DNA sequence: TTTTCATTGCGTAAAAATTACGGAATAATA
DNA sequence: TATTATTCCGTAATTTTTACGCAATGAAAA
């Protein structure tokens, strides 16, 4: 990350590189220690956090822009991502004089009220799900930290980013039935208790573990492996993996994976 | 509709009234004679059709803009509408020299390639559902007709508007289980066969009419009226209406109205 | 070595929902 | 009066969901 170069590109040339008035924000979900987490950035010299985001280059596809932004923060290609809502309150990106001063100071750029970055911005939002352990969080030049935060204990967020996370979670809960959420959040090999915990965490409610397992196995989308996972002073659970072909076929045909 | 005034407002002053690079397109569903229909506009002097759409005023909320656009085409306030996808292929709004010439001629405005209307535009899309009979279709100054078209027999559409309709229909099919679709598409009073036909049409598959009726009645969301609808040489079906309070309560609580 | 504890695997059974389908009631027409 | 076709109001078999039990297991404690 070349901070000086990025700063100039955004602050001074951004108005001709990027589509004005439009941005992209990403809600990146990960799952770790039975907690749904979301990747956030902490602004330099501020106790304010934000979602990973950025702008759309003039000749860039929306999805390509979202993927690029994701790659920059996570180090990963080909993350599963879905557009879920476009936020556009006229005042959503307004900054107080203090905020403007702060932005000016961390970018070493004088800002007047006509600067393209201070204009009204409509944000096209995507959610992404990926394996927690594969992510290598990378702050951008405006931030000092890029970290996973628990969905139930979010820090103070800028603009409408908290609303974005809430809307993304609602969408995730609906999509869990016909999008490859579990498939992308879990390791390639997982146990029944692990996928059970994941669904309980996402749906925010208790599911009977015996009925859940029975139903999931009856769908025929996962395969039991000849491997068990040692978990200490208890019976070692079997490992499973998704039958990729059957799973993708089911998704394509729109079969509702109701649990 | 004052054509000259609207033309000047859009073509000459639009760049300062509206947010550039952003538009709104609406997929308006109606239901008539057991057919799902969508409201379309036919361009002047052209056999090309488009969805109702428009731009967002600088201080206008996205949803407010969508409502305004809907009102202008349908004459109705408070139509049920939901944002469903933002389309933004870089080339989606490109026009051939022929198309530019055509636009110039129907607006009596010379257009050079720097005109704000010819720039790349990202479109925020909404679907709406409303009672077919209440709509008073109104073409805008670029169009000579505003008409309902059957979802299964669409005319030639500009840009990615066919994709928009397909995506809207997919969303409608998912939303039918937890959004007031039937409630907004049917008359206040309807019969069991009418709502059964509506669901079959939207879902695109046969539903057993005896099981459908039984299930719908078991949800407790509709009330049988002391009225029947004479349909000629057959037994007159009873009329029903939604129990508004129970229905809204069910929607709020997220009860899935699975049929 | 035996016992304890807590998790996982593999069920059983009752309740609820879904699915398939029949025939009486009805109303205009022949 | 008989015919036709639609609606109403079912019954019953099948499937799914829900609730829950207990044996197998494995590390740690006694």
From TrEMBL, chains A, B:
Residues 19-171 form the Nudix hydrolase domain. Pfam families: NUDIX, WHD_NrtR. It comes from the Bacteria. Coiled coil: none annotated. InterPro entries: NUDIX_hydrolase-like_dom_sf (IPR015797), NUDIX_hydrolase_dom (IPR000086), WH-like_DNA-bd_sf (IPR036388), WH_DNA-bd_sf (IPR036390), WHD_NrtR (IPR054105). This is NUDIX domain-containing protein. It comes from Limnovirga soli. The lineage of its organism: Bacteria, Pseudomonadati, Bacteroidota, Chitinophagia, Chitinophagales.
């Amino acid at each position: 990350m070349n901070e000086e170069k990025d700063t100039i590109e955004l602050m001074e040339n951004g108005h001709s590189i990027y589509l004005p008035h439009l941005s992209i924000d990403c809600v990146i979900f990960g799952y770790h220690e039975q907690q749904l987490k979301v990747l956030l950035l902490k602004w330099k010299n501020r106790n304010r956090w934000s979602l990973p985001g950025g702008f759309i280059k003039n000749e860039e596809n929306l999805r390509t822009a979202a993927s690029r932004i994701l790659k920059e923060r996570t180090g990963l290609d080909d993350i599963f991502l879905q557009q879920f809502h476009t936020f556009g309150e006229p005042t959503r990106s307004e900054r107080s004089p203090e905020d403007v001063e702060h932005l000016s100071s961390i970018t070493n750029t004088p800002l007047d009220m006509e600067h393209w970055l201070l204009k009204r911005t409509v944000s096209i939002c995507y959610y992404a799900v990926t394996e927690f352990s594969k992510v290598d969080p990378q702050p951008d030049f405006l931030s000092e930290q890029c970290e996973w935060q628990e969905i139930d204990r979010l820090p103070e967020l800028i603009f409408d980013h908290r609303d974005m996370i809430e809307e993304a979670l609602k969408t995730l809960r609906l999509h869990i039935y016909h999008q490859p959420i579990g498939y992308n959040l879990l390791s390639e090999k997982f146990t029944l208790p692990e996928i059970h915990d994941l669904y309980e965490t996402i749906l925010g409610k208790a599911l009977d573990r015996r009925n859940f397992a029975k139903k999931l196995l009856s769908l025929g989308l996962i395969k039991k492996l000849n491997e068990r996972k040692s978990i200490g002073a208890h019976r070692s659970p079997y490992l499973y993996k998704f039958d990729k072909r059957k799973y993708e076929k089911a998704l394509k045909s729109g079969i509702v994976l109701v649990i």
